[in-house]
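Note to self: the last two entries modelled the partners one at a time, which told us nothing about the interface. This time every component goes in together.
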Amino acid sequence: MLELRLVQGSLLKKVLESIKDLVNDANFDCSSSGFSLQAMDSSHVALVALLLRSEGFEHYRCDRNMSMGMNLGNMSKMLRCAGNDDIITIKADDGSDTVTFMFESPTQDKISDFEMKLMDIDSEHLGIPEAEYQSIVTMPSAEFARICKDLSGIGDTVVISVTKEGVKFSTRGDIGTANIVCRQNTTVDKPEEATVINMSEPVSLTFALRYMNSFTKATTLSNTVTISLSSELPVVVEYKIAEMGYIRFYLAPKIEE
Amino acid sequence: MQRQQSILSFFKKP
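The predicted structure of the combined assembly is written out below.
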């Protein structure tokens, strides 16, 4: 028996909106520690890892570990029927081939339930090695989204270079080139407006902007984004989910042939 | 020319 009650139901709505175009089908894993997901896009270029810790739910019952295969497009269609202020409860019986999403309006005057068919998904969790990243940049998530969107009008790839001077986002296309440098800036009124660069070694890597732009759909989940870079490793683009966990996107770099 | 690497080149199946 599984019953997870999330008072801030909009968080789950936002999570689905941020991953449904990247991943078609995925197994949601439920254990006593939390509700999680790990899935690759169909081209095996990017990987998303989601964790919503059990402590973040108002009520969390998971009698035994369960893996529920869901089509994220269909799940998103159902969650879009929840109001932004609704409480969302996820329910499933052991061995059932369906999951139920229940939506309660804040005033309790409207209660809906949607039952969705589960699917068998053959997927193995990949081992993500612990890594010390050479450069870690934390910046306002809206600023990162703006940069990715702006650059994708000019080129298909972004070179992210971190030096002591700052983090540089560069692209090149048929119409010309673009370089955007964000300097470390910690003297701001609010901590979420800061750009913080922790660099042990300078690093420069190239990534497909199409994927970066897809990741920025998670911007609504967090005011800040953390970009962790090391040569020879996928970049990690992480959005913290308030007091509950995180959504992390891993993207393999492009290399010169 | 640039080549897109796969995530499977970095993260292994168990």
